[in-house]
Amino acid sequence: MNTPTVTVLGASGFIGRHLVARLRADGVACDAPPRQDTDLPRRPLGHVIYAIGLTSDFRTRPLETVEAHVCVLRSLLAHGDFDSLTYLSSTRVYAGAADTRESATLSVNPNDPSDLYNLSKLMGESLCLHGGRAGAKVARLSNIVGLRDAPDSFIDQLLAEGARGGGVTLRTALSSRKDYLHIDDAVSQIIAIALSDATGIFNVAHGAGVENGEVAACLQAALGYRVAVAPDAPEWAFADVDVSRTQALCGLAPRPFSEFFPNFLAQYRLHKGI
């Protein structure tokens, strides 16, 4: 039996499914083991992409969040037979930071329940970088846009709300900014990082924030949704993510939001029968 070139852990999730599909379409040998594959530590895994994780439900499932982001990873680092390991983290760890370079010093507050996600991801990152295994690296993912089975992202939650009642209410100001990257561009960058000899941390993002106002205008134009803003909605301005290190590795710049988002909304409309 041939050793797979790439093993995707978390292949049933949103990012994992797209990684497997791209790798196989490109003719790359790819293994996508199920969650409870007890034979995993006993066979060669090639280049591992660790896409196991929880997103929007981490507040209600804190123990499972740490299990996914840290505990399973710890076992893999201790016993896994791999050539390299790329751990998928999040640019959420830059929340409140002015410096978004991969070398930035970050802060967390254990008294804030929202920071449990960042704490667990940073623990996973630290294990990869300092766990004594060569070839481990980290990819910090931005807000990834693509068709999902469940609304576990800000964009998808807005779309689900609009589909229910024909309108959405923003809980943050129209001037609030986030970084958005299309799933196809994210997959290209992750694979390039995973198959490279590079080590360390890489930001997988577009690099330029998009205001809520632009998102709202697209929802109105493409889907006819009414958009309201909650009274006293705070401004949440996320600093633009530094992508210079990843761009130097990958070469091609990702598509801007203004290019991919209208096409995504057209796909969403067909997918949901709106």
Task: Summarize the topology.
Layout: E1 6-9, H1 14-25, E2 30-31, E3 47-50, H2 62-79, E4 84-90, H3 115-130, E5 136-141, E6 143-145, H4 154-165, E7 167-170, E8 177-178, E9 180-182, H5 183-194, E10 200-204, E11 210-211, H6 212-223, E12 226-229, H7 244-250, H8 257-272
Parallel strand pairs: 1-2, 1-3, 3-4, 4-5, 5-10, 6-9, 7-12
Antiparallel strand pairs: 8-11
Helix pairs in contact: 1-5, 2-3, 6-8
CATH architecture of the largest domain: 3-Layer(aba) Sandwich
- H-E string: EHEEHEHEEHEEEHEEHEHH
The CATH superfamily of the largest domain is NAD(P)-binding Rossmann-like Domain
What is the straight-line distance between the termini? 46 Å
Main beta-sheet strand count, sense and barrel state: 6 strands, parallel
Strand segment count: 12
* Mean pLDDT score: 92
Radius of gyration (CA) equals 19 Å
Structural class call reads alpha/beta
Considering DSSP H and I runs of 4 or more, what fraction of the residues is helical?
A: 25-40%
Return the domain count.
Answer: 2
CATH class of the largest domain: Alpha Beta
The largest sheet has its strands arranged as 2-1-3-4-5-10
What low-confidence regions span 5 or more consecutive residues with pLDDT below 50?
none
Shape: globular
Q: Compute the number of helices.
A: 8
Strand content: 15-25%
Q: What descriptors fit this protein?
A:
six-stranded parallel β-sheet; Rossmann fold; alpha/beta; 274 residues; single chain
